[in-house]
Description:
By secondary structure, the chain is an alpha/beta fold. Helices cover about 35% and strands about 15% of the residues. Strands 3-2-1-4-5-6-7-8 form an 8-stranded mixed β-sheet, sandwiched between helices. Strand 11 and strand 12 form a beta hairpin. The longest helix has about 30 residues, at about 185-215. The chain is elongated and about 75 Å long. The termini are far apart.
Amino acid sequence: MPADLAVIGLGPYGMPLAQAAVAAGIPTIGYATGPEAGSLSPAELRRMRSTGFRLSTDPAQLGRVRTAVICPPTPRGADGELDLGQVEAAARTLAERLRPHTTVILESPVLPGTTEELLRPILERGSGLRAGRDFHLAYSPSRADPGSRDHTPAPRVIGGLTPACTESAAAFYGRLTDKAVRARGLREAEAVRLLETNFRHVNIALVNEMAVVCHELGVDLWDVIRCAETKPFGFQAFRPGPGVGGHGVPQDLTGHASRGLRMVELAQQVNERMPHYVVQRAAALLNEHGKSARGARVLLLGVTYKADLADQQGAPAHEIAVRLMELGASVSYHDPHIPAWHVLDRPVPRADSLYEAAAAADLTLLLQPHRTYDLQGLSVKAQLLLDTRGATPTGAAHRL
Length: 400
């Protein structure tokens, strides 16, 4: 059966789209742009293949679909800018096979203007076709929520190069969700993702700063948040943590506009300081209990960037481990999703028996509250427990 859809890039944006499309009965080809396809379990692949999904390494297959969605990750490069290398490579591969009347959609996080100024020329040069006349071109920000148990399709925002491009992309997403929201154009749709990502980082930075200040004042921030979130308007609860990981990179637009987003720049600074603050708190707790960080046995629980997800992209656990090692601590870890972990090119010992390891450690740091953790049991077994997520029962552990 010929595929209706090609998902190009099978990482954190492409795989959720492919899974949703297959669940909706859309025959789908998955085309990997990097090693991310290897993260699929054999069981997941079998389930998807049984309902119309095919992995392909043949780029010719990309020219046989009605819709092609470009979804590679765009991580922050060494210069702080988004690395669009995988998006460009995917576009060049698609362009050589692009047929008239195809709908091409970009879902990767990009800055406003990228679809028209970067993607469009690559597609037009490589194909000899013209966007908006011979093929449809649109942008839709991915709204995947990795690890979420709520599989209700989120409304999709769509902005096209032309009104006809918008409607063609909306017709595709209408097969996946009950609500397609039409943006005025490409740049507005791209800016939606920018706003959504920056909103998350700015609000996390606010509660991270509140965590530091409330600790100094002797105020229980977790109780403050519990009470504040009862307000039915004008408030959305965010919670502090040891840092902000994930694939959504905040952008302050410096160098892209006459003035950057100063609040985003400040939020980045706040969030990037959190691993250092966690290590400071850890060292202070050890000192309060008559122990030094040098030589202390420290157990890190949960080293992924999000609970119940085997993804370490940007996880603060790495920097926390490095700083603890620099202080002379002996670091080990436990994570049901990460069988092996290296820091500073050295393997970090993995605890086999969680409760025995917590009992033996001078300090246990809870970084991600995976569902498999019995937090009440851990709080009893651990000699000293610092909960950076506010996940343990009140009074069961020291909280960030």
